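Q: How do we represent a protein-ligand complex in a form that can be generated token by token?
A: Start from the inputs.
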Amino acid sequence: MNQRDSAWPRLNALAAEQDVSVALLQEARRPTSALDGWQVHPPIGEQERWRITVPGRYRAADGTLKPTRRNFASALASRDGVVVPREPTELHDVVDGEFACSHPGQFAVGDVAIDGGPRVTVISLYGIWDRMLDSGTMFPEATLHRAISDLTPVFQERANDYVLVAGDLNLYSYSDGTVWGRRGMTVFERLAAYGLETCGPFRRDDEPRLARCPCPDPACRHVHTFLYQSKPTNRPHQLDFFLATPALRERLRDCWADPDPHWPLHSDHRPIFAAFDL
Ligand SMILES: [Zn+2]
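Then emit the structure tokens for the protein with zinc ion bound:
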């Protein structure tokens, strides 16, 4: 949602166009008012939960400590009230054996109940940037691995045949042939150990290859989902993915990115969609 207030009315429009029942959101700012027809989690009234509160401070250029600027969170939005949220507790406060989170606001989890269908657990996941102490280079895999650790009891539940993870993983350099790429790929590898594999969006056979994709794959199937600062001259990347368990992947009907060519007007990320027969 690119931390934009205008992302909420945009969600409304996209949901109508693409027939969306559940939206997994990242970099979402707290809505300023109730949203007609939508159930939103975290609750709109709980201001503190619309921030990533760990790390809680950053050091400004003048050396002083200031409160985090990450005034956004991962969120779930559903129409028809079908999602039952699961609430993690910040790691240092959690009761032993209960559901914890290292970076409150990094992910949002809920169970979707479907009449006559399976329970589907949906997870909106965001790759928070860490910064190298020496070079200042940024990397997201460390915070993603913390999230995977937090989510392990969810992934391993016996009742969880149907799990969907979606989000802006911020894994820029995966498979670009550098050591950063290999480190980024560990996130996908670790999720695969829980049965979670990418189910899209992939480039369709009749679509041209993504120009300037950093990956070395001659059969690259990446789809453009991110444009830094929405500037057309910047290199296109795919940072946004759906990953699903085998049973859920079998139910996948289609997966695609927003067909609107003007998507960078609304966000630096392109919305992605998945449809399942449940
Ligand atoms: Zn590629």
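Residues 141-155 form the longest helix (15 residues). Residues 210, 213, 215, 217, 220, 222 surround zinc ion (CB under 6 Å).
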